[in-house]
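Pinned message: reference record for Phospholipid:diacylglycerol acyltransferase
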Amino acid sequence: MISDIDMDYVSEMLYDWRSVLPASILSEAELINKEEQDRYDSSESFAVGFYLRSLNLTAKYPIITIPGVISTGLESWYVDDQPNACATKANFRQRLWGSWSMIKAMFMDKQCWLNQICLDPETGMDPPGAKLRAAQGFEASDFFITGYWIWNKLLENLAALHYDPNNMFSAAYDWRLAYSDIEKRDHYFTRMKTVIEHNLKFTGEKTILVSHSMGSQIAFYFMKWVEAEGYGNGGKRWVNDHIEAFVDISGCLLGTPKSIVALMSGEMRDTVQLNPLAVYGLEKFFSRSERAYMLRTFGGIPSMIPKGGSVVWGGIDSAPDDAPGQNNTFGKFIAFEKTIGELSSKNLTVEGAMETLFKVSPEWFKKRVLENYSWGLATTTKQLKANEKDPSKWTNPLEVALPYAPDMKLYHFYGIGKPTERSYWYEEIDNKTMFNLDLTIDKHRADSVLLGEGDGTISLLTHSICHIWKRPNSIYNPGGSKVTIVEMKHEPDLFDMRGGAKTAEHVDILGRGELNEMVIRVAAGKGDEIPDRIISNIEQYVEKMGI
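Predicted structure (tokens):
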């Protein structure tokens, strides 16, 4: 398709050949070049959708969108007046996450807000005197707060192809909960299964899952849950028979380094993907220890802990994505300049950082995390099959294989070119009683955060699994599902606060013109026309892993 041409290259070619080519060809080529540039340089509402509609593309497959972590608004449904309860009937359906009400609540009574947003540390469910639920419908994730869009650009362009609530469903969820608890409390995966079966029955078409960030892990977990006996009970052919394609947008299928430091010491500014105003509120009104406690009560956050251990993320002496001549290897995930006590007595790999995280965290945190998640690596078909019956493995595509779904297509669209947190310099706190923390990022160093490749939030290495799935006869893709991978370079518009139509930043990529076009082509049944595009060195990194 014409959108696959590098238009900067076309412009240079036209200039170089202006004295050779006939004027009529030059004129037509320049017109095509201008149309392409205008389309991709424009972030106007509906522009991509209307363009593709003019090419006779139209809605074909039903779509389910799955938002990422923090993208879904959370609203209060607490109506039982009890002594000492912060939540009241006056707050009914007020958004305490994802609105100006959140900022106001932080400012007016931070402890009350914290009591409502945190989950019960022992049960992982609603604490006494609070009841937050995920907002529903497209309003749940179209905007974070007024004016700050998340999914709205994509919804607009899909609407231009005649998508509406009859053939498109937003699968919003309470991202605070562990995946098993999302089903236990809200029957989330059961409801998703019902919607997909309804789509097939009434439209005759399979469904496309379009997910972003942590939503891609939710989608993968769902595909394992829905077929498993005693859970979704769909059987071994359900995914193949019901899901046309899995579109993974900037997914964190193998986790991301930021999650560990967020849980370890409440680091926030670059560690959690938030609207800048929300980050300001959390940093302004809450200490690092309060932030660490809050995040530890959220059972969903540990799902983003890096998977694959030293094989994927490196050992103490080297990492697959180390640059030639790099002074400090990324494999030395957390390094200490000074030894204060036992915690800072040695540098840590990702695996060592996990062990240390459990040391400095409450026992309830360790117990819940180990019950729900796993970060290992299976290297044989026998191991992968043995893991199928263990739900804690269903969040790790290196420990359980994709469903046997030879007819399902996989599309992985992600950004590169924006420096992303990869490893850290930490220090152990001498007076722990004063700070109520054991460790924190070393504030005395200018290079306390080492940056690698990614989209500003998600490390490039997390996309390794896409390339592993793509390999011929991959044991992690037993059905040989076709895999298409498109990397998008971060080329932001400096005069646009959200980066414009060529941004590849983790959240703003949802408004990128090219991303919107590719999603629409998949939805319209034209996904086979999208070619692979690999710009980074990730294939070399995967080779070094030796998986």
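Pinned by admin. Summary line: The longest strand covers residues 420-428.
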